[in-house]
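INFO batch 0412 | record 1 of 1 | parsing
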Amino acid sequence: MNRAYFSGSFESFLVREDAAILGDLLQGHELDQLEIDQRIAWQEEIAILKSTLTGRSGHIYLEYSIPRMGRRIDAVLIVEGVVFVLEFKVGENHYTPYAIDQVVDYALDLKNFHEASHSVHIAPILIATQAIKVSISAKDTGHGDKLLAPILTNATKLGDAIDVVMQAVTSNPIQPAQWEAGRYKPTPTIIEAAMALYNGHSVTHPKLYQRSFDCPGPTHKKAFAFLLAFPVLEKRWWVSMWQQNIRTKLAISTASSFQETVHLSPFYEKHLLETR
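INFO prediction complete | emitting tokens
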């Protein structure tokens, strides 16, 4: 299974026409759903990557799938023994906390759930193309898992970021074919699994019901019940209960009615049913 819309050696990427690469990316989307801004972003990303990768050896993957999250990494580069996870923010002149978290989450996902990435160095890089300040250093996160701290750079300094990492780490070369064949074994949260499942389907948006109530007992602590309901596909309801710092997740399959299949204590059942 090819997880990327485009994959190939740096050499094949550099000699392929920009329009052909853009066509590869467009094939993964329904044209009526693809925003013009996304096309423009891809065109700029291709230009930046071609400028950066000229004279280098390695392998590139564009729009690499992260099944657990239902998302795609803008670009993954394999250079010798390092996997670079690239997230582009075209036109941005600063690095938002959300964007930093995004590229780190992608890198963590590969590190934790992609078998071929468990023992290799992974370097997440956020590229805000118009940013003036950059933060380029190969810092280890301190967890001993070969995951580097996020690097913040702009379009012109991406090559410098790659060079800094390559000079800082020593590792065995990665074989792209073996890395591609590595098994992906995610363990998504309930909500992540449900959202990934419905991603791209034209169904009614999930509805979230919530209600606060007093828990029985001497402390009378407040608790919250959240009900996330999906309208189709085996009518599966996901219920999560949060009480203080304890979280319990329950999966409930419904038949003809919600009441027939809820198996909670009478107290919680009463209050959950009131949220409908």
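INFO post-check: Confidence is low (pLDDT under 50) at residues 207-214, 219-276.
INFO record closed
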